[in-house]
Amino acid sequence: MIDRNDFFSDDVRKAVENFEKMLQNRESIYLDEETLEDIIEFYLAQSKPRKALNASQIALEQSPFNLHFKLKKAQAHNLLEDAESALAVIEEIELLEPTNPEIYITKSDSLELQGRFDEAIACLYNALEFTDEKSEIYMHLGFLYESKKDFKQALQMFTRSLEFDQHNEQAFFEIGLCYEALSNNEESTRFYEKFIDRHPYNANAWYNLGISFSKLQRYEKAEWAFDYAIVIDENLSNAYFNKANAQMHLNKYREAIDNYLTTMELDGPDAFCHCNIGECYEQLEEFDEARNHYKKAVQMLPQLDEAWFGLGICYDNEDKMIEAQHYYKRALDIDPTNAEYWFAYADVLFSLGLMEECEKAFEEATTINPNLHEAWLDWSAVKFENGDHDSAIEMLLNQIEENHTITQYYYRVAGYLYKSGLQKEGIAFFESALQHNFDQHTAFFDFFPDLLQSQKFLDVLDNHHPRNN
Fold it and tell me: Residue 292: inside a domain, yes or no?
């Protein structure tokens, strides 16, 4: 991270220290104008508007006609969100320096604070006439149009900003956001591709092309784009991180681990990188390594619920249910609105024989996300295994009524009905399930392996086999 102090010389920092000592000792203050300008700029850059305002006032007491000090005073008022006071100051000076773009920018900021976006935009167009820093002004315009939810105009402004500064990283980022807000990520990729045709060695363009491909779930193309960004700028840490994310979607877990590690070599230890590495090792079923990285993640960021959940998954996969229960609960304490967490927690509670808590957890999971189909199936299985056959069947029949496209509901009801003595009804549901999706019959027999011995089911299966139709 860049320290804002790095922008200021030792002399400026020394001047600030002396100024503050004089204030503390209530000494009379007289400094040359250049030193006072440096002190005010220092406070503004450090986001210390009250100190900047005080310094501006002292400067104006010494030099009451200095327009630069008045402008800085207005900027300090803006940082304090006191737009009315800022505009009062600007009115004193805007007619005296009508070609000063900084006055128009400051006035625009004040008007924006008051929600007067059209007037703020007009000010920035005035500033464009008198400045060479056109990329910066177009960025300001883009942000104002974003505030108005006018993403088409915002997009034009950010694109114009790039015409004046092709390395404007923020402009690339905002362009992507605008295309996303316009639900046009395809057009986003075309924009970056055209830009790359003109500027093939622009790492930011390749990086943002990769982001666009990722949003479209075209992960192989995303990986390719991030590779080019890295070739151009081998220190572009975000490219390694997002390349790793794309590789996780492509099940390239070991390659992803390498890129997360490279990200941390460039940027230092990071909880999210450790969490993602943990997930990679979890997918590789190397649970000791997964736990190692998940634990590093929560040590760095105790509120990272995904890492606590990952620890639970590791123990769950090793049938260490007490430990799994503990870590799932830690994840839920942080995010009690996550249906997946409640679902996993419910399954572990069932394994531990904690039926009442298990039922409550399934209820939470399905209330938060009624479309969590696996949770309904597992909850019905809990009920059926506990002898509550009618409730298990009724639960899934209700779900079929809500959503008749989930074939596994039909298969599961077929088995429940048959095993409850309603064989004719069970066979009828089995036939209906086969008509919905024949291939899912394998999951049915995995869940009800004893029904493979039933000639009735085998006959129906054979009659509905695609080769016989």
Answer: no
